[in-house]
Amino acid sequence: MATRYFGQRIRRNEDPRLLTGQALFTDDVNLPNTLHVAFYRSDYAHGKILSIDTEEAKKRPGVIGVYTAEDLGDYWQRGPLLVPPPPIKDIVFNERTQVPLAKDKICHAGEAVVMVVAESRYIAEDAVEDIEVDIDFLDAVVDIEKAMTDESPLVHDDIEKNIAAHVVQEKGSYSSIRDKAHTVISRKFIYDRGTAAAMENRGVVANWDERNQQLTVWDTTQAPIPIRNGLAAMLGLSQSQVRVIAPFIGGGFGPKIMMFYPEEVLIPWVSKQLKRPVKWIEDREENFFSTTHERGQVHEAEIAVAEDGKILGIHDVFVHDAGAYAPYGLTVPINSQCTLLGCYDVPNYYSEFTAVFTNKPIVTPYRGAGRQHGVFVMERLLDLAAQKLGMTPVEIRRKNFIPQDAFPYDNEIIYQDFSPLVYDSGNYEPALKRAVELIEYDKFIKEEQPRLLQEGKRVGIGIVSYVEGTGIGPYEGAKVSIDPSGKVSLVTGIGTQGQGHFTSFAQIVSEVLDVPVEDVRVVTGDTLEFGWGAGTFASRGAVVAGSACHEAALAVKKKIHKLASEILEASEDDLEVSGGNVQVKGVPDTAISLGELAAKANPLRGAVKPGTEPGLEATSYFGPSRGTTASGVHAMIVSVDPETFLVNIERYIVVHDCGRVINPMILDGQIQGGVAQGIGNAFYEQLFFDENGQLLNASFMDYLLPTSLDVPKIEGDHIETPSPLNPLGVKGAGEAGAIPVGALYAQAIENAFHDCNLEILEIPLSPNRLYEIISQNKTKEQI
Amino acid sequence: MKPCTFEYYKPSSMEEALDLMHQYGGEAKILAGGQSLVPAMNFRLATPGILIDINGLQDLSYIKEHRKHGVLIGAMARYSELEKSDVVAKKCPLLHETIPYIAHPQIRNRGTMGGSLVHADPAAELPAVMLALDASLRLRNKDGERVVAITDFFTGMFGTAMKEDEILTEVAIPHMPKRYGFAFDEVSRRHGDYAMVGVAVSLNVDRKGRCEKGKIVFFSVGDAPVFAEKASQLLDKQNVSEELLENIANVASSEDIEPGSDIHASADYRRHLAKVLTKKTLKRAFDKALA
Ligand SMILES: Cc1cc2nc3c(=O)[nH]c(=O)nc-3n(C[C@H](O)[C@H](O)[C@H](O)COP(=O)(O)OP(=O)(O)OC[C@H]3O[C@@H](n4cnc5c(N)ncnc54)[C@H](O)[C@@H]3O)c2cc1C
């Protein structure tokens, strides 16, 4: 279909505001009389609170209030379980969610114990230093494999062996084919923790207006509507008394959809108590402890293949680090379990995991949300199998791709959205072919690599594929209305954290109503403007909210046709919207501007027909039956300095399929940013905990984010396999860049040392770690 | 991450600054570029009651050549000024080569020569380079001034021979000898990071190409910059050869340094890097001296 706006590289509507510093972020909200908050956070990871002395803090000039768990009275409640366990047979699930302030026990370093409210953040921080908390130090649960043993200390006294959950999912029967396989390979894989490190930390500003009995909260949340609903319930207010605004946010990446963070519970409450605006802005040090993390898993996995490389089955048993509490249920490990299957036809699959509590910050989804681990294990197993069978990485993947005619493809296990893991559509071969072409795979192996090796240079190539489950339910909504000025207003409930919603959503509406994209004013994440929906997560904005925008625009178009047909005395079918007007098809003389029509739709005098709704406005909702499955192939060439083990990316290719593309420029940005985070995750970023559960690198001096010098420009291409599950044919793209990077690093570095029998079975890597792996390998060979 | 309360003074003359230091001594801290002090204050790792900001002392940021004493650099000379200075480029090429490795342009626009030396971070570049160059430091207090050889300046982890009321005013770097060679290199995770290991080499050769005097100095391998004494002695009267480089690199990395392990690099990896870097930089330094 010919499109004017949908699918175009259109400059972003939001950029002028962002680039000139005019966009409102939470910390920009400065109300007169605001109070500021700082928290006393535990230095220890595990311990019993014996006593808390806040007397000195209370006496400090400028301190308005000091609150412990006791002081919260009945308001002290555990946070909600956001995602209940999915309906899987024999599932074990031990619920334990976080608390606003630690009461009897500290479960991770950095857990908030006391809240101080003062006239300035400076005074609040001074007062925090006045507080004395006497803690009976306990041994910490740090190592996730040891956490399940009888000897381990317990994070929660009543939860045996620290087991948060145990889940088995099975397809076919792995045990019945294992003996028939030509080759069986098993290995242990480790994927360690990182943090999202969004550019903007979290923050909450709350203002209780006593006269209007109205609470307004600015929150760096990805889910303003659920926050409003929760706050109203907790504070005993009606939902209409609470307005939550998620303004511009400098990156969400998942941790900002965790609910409720202690600060989100406490700041609105204390504003209501003190009847003054209250502000808390997380600093970077706090962010390392109090914003959620992700990634820690250990897999013992096995692949059984036939002589020709066909996968007969996979067996995987893994441990997942839930951290101190598990408010997000099993989303992350279930994603690992499901995403492991990837683009491949795996007839027999046994997957078992145990999620364990540890004395470390909470784990919730972070861009990729468990998919990285699954992809890492599967891609590594395929690489090992290929090597054993004398195949190339490309050949073994091609051999096992789900064929194009097999969609929808049922994996016969349950996904994070509780529905069966059925891939809606896909076409994996062309993406692989394109990536092989773009990176000149064969030429590299045959010519480049041997030549460079002769010069003493270690260069390697990698190519991996992956799927990304995206666009899950339940639903989102959108309201579209045409202003008498002819401009269009579009409101949706989801929050925005830099994805380009102000443009992509506008493009969807522009396409239907044929108005310029810059004439569509988009509002997101303000519960006063739109009060229904779930939030921005799981790469679902474009799919779910985008489809709702489309439906609402169609409904408005219908209203345009209806009203115009009355005015023009023509049948609705004979009308068209074009260039901001509605007219009889091909008769520009009949054109009425949409603005004029909007004015006519809102008469001030006279009578209207019974049942007439005013305005050119419509609200629509969209709820998909299940998620869409995007996919892609990443390839890269790395050089490894054989003396220092510093790694440099020479080329990076992404060929990606997220169905129909709304704005290729925005999509490129998503991919580029995702790969940057993937590179960080694979080679730079790692949270180091000592045996006491202390985080050793809680600053950007020691927690290394890749900089612009470390991230190459991503080259690539798009394949469009539309989704049949929504009217736009779109699939999510938010996490695609980040997911397979670890697997790619491992393969490419191994390839650079292909003559050394190296095996890379862990992420993150580092020059130091490569040095260790390579020197160990040398000794092994010498023996 | 807000600092504790402090009093702030901005003297406009050295005398005023020295008076303040005399008055407040141990309670006070000099504020130079602030690139180490201010983060430390925000983390409340440093809690000085008094800050004496010497950014108002214009006459402290000179870079000039002196017939007898070599190159003289005021304590407030910024990294970026050193980077762009012709005097430094011509007369202290080792320093010139080093500056771009330090941090990032924004930090180099503020950070100072004096601040880096007094801060005495064992992972910092300038202390090691000054050690390799045999610099001397001019320290002043209200009672007068003294000159301290760089070899006597660093006393351990973030420790120096400065007295509580002293201000570092000037660094003197002796003239380069004839047939001079130098090299600097480091391995860091990302460009601009503190290095996992770094090395500075400064040497000169006689007419026959034999090393007359050579210094190899490491950083990030101990609690202060480390002069590799044994390895440097092995340079004495030697012509460059593969065996020499290999031998010196071995001695330097196994005997002269006692590196620790941290989250970025194990002691083993640090020794390995020290060896790799020693060979490379020594070779380059000889090449330059022989050219
Ligand atoms: C992101 C970042 C990256 C960095 N990377 C590096 C790096 O790679 N390598 C590196 O070497 N450094 C690095 N640094 C530190 C930087 O080099 C500092 O500038 C330097 O260590 C201190 O210089 P300053 O002028 O900023 O001193 P300040 O921070 O102002 O002071 C440092 C200390 O020296 C004292 N002091 C300063 N001047 C005098 C004086 N004249 N007399 C007496 N006492 C004095 C102060 O009281 C204070 O104790 C980095 C800093 C940052 C923020």
From TrEMBL, chain A:
GO terms for molecular function: iron ion binding; oxidoreductase activity. Gene3D superfamilies: Aldehyde oxidase/xanthine dehydrogenase, a/b hammerhead, Aldehyde oxidase/xanthine dehydrogenase, molybdopterin binding domain. The keyword Oxidoreductase applies. Keywords: Molybdenum, Oxidoreductase. Residues 20-139 form the Aldehyde oxidase/xanthine dehydrogenase a/b hammerhead domain. Pfam families: Ald_Xan_dh_C (PF01315), MoCoBD_1 (PF02738), MoCoBD_2 (PF20256). This is Aldehyde dehydrogenase. The lineage of its organism: Bacteria, Pseudomonadati, Planctomycetota, Candidatus Uabimicrobiia, Candidatus Uabimicrobiales.
TrEMBL record, chain B:
One of its GO terms (molecular function) is FAD binding. The keyword Flavoprotein applies. Residues 1-178 form the FAD-binding PCMH-type domain. The keyword 4Fe-4S does not apply. InterPro entries: CO_DH_flav_C (IPR005107), CO_DH_flav_C_dom_sf (IPR036683), Diverse_Substr_Oxidored (IPR051312), FAD-bd_PCMH (IPR016166), FAD-bd_PCMH-like_sf (IPR036318), FAD-bd_PCMH_sub1 (IPR016167), FAD-bd_PCMH_sub2 (IPR016169), Mopterin_DH_FAD-bd (IPR002346). Keywords: FAD, Flavoprotein, Oxidoreductase. SUPFAM superfamilies: CO dehydrogenase flavoprotein C-terminal domain-like, FAD-binding/transporter-associated domain-like. This is Carbon monoxide dehydrogenase. The lineage of its organism: Bacteria, Pseudomonadati, Planctomycetota, Candidatus Uabimicrobiia, Candidatus Uabimicrobiales.
